[in-house]
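Q: I'm writing up a methods section and want to include an example of the input and output format. Could you take the sequence below and give the corresponding predicted structure tokens, formatted cleanly so I can copy it straight into the document?
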Amino acid sequence: MLSSTRLVGRTLLRRFSRSLATGEDVNQQVWRLGRLNHVAIAVPDLQKSADFYRNVLGAKVSETVPLPEHGVYTVFVELDNTKIELLHPLGEKSPIQGFLDKKPDGGMHHVCLEVDDIEAAVKSVREMNVRTLAPKTKIGAHGKPVMFLHPKDCGGVLLELEQADT
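A: Here is the clean output for your methods example:
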């Protein structure tokens, strides 16, 4: 018997394969996937990591911004084609603390992709049995609505969808 994850994966793969064969867009053009917004890295020492990108690599690095609603401190490293988001725990229930408890040296936490209609994208992925980590979108670090997708439904990667600039 197939596990539910494998069954969902096979269903999505069949739908995707069918769409490639017919030229049909997987999400029927209700929403469009945009650019890579950032790659997020959980770090045990935010200042040390920010200093590395600023002083060793010569990158433009933002100030630290607390996001209590997400349980994180963030610092953005600006690159020509995208950003790196450095994440550090804020508060006792921080999801980043749980990540660092498992990986004390830190590591890649998630990938953020822009979409042109976050609500339509969330509805669409849910209809394809992709689990979201919250019942509704939240405002993220850039002041835009975001939604995280379960890594078990996304090839082992935690994905964040973010509303693109319109």
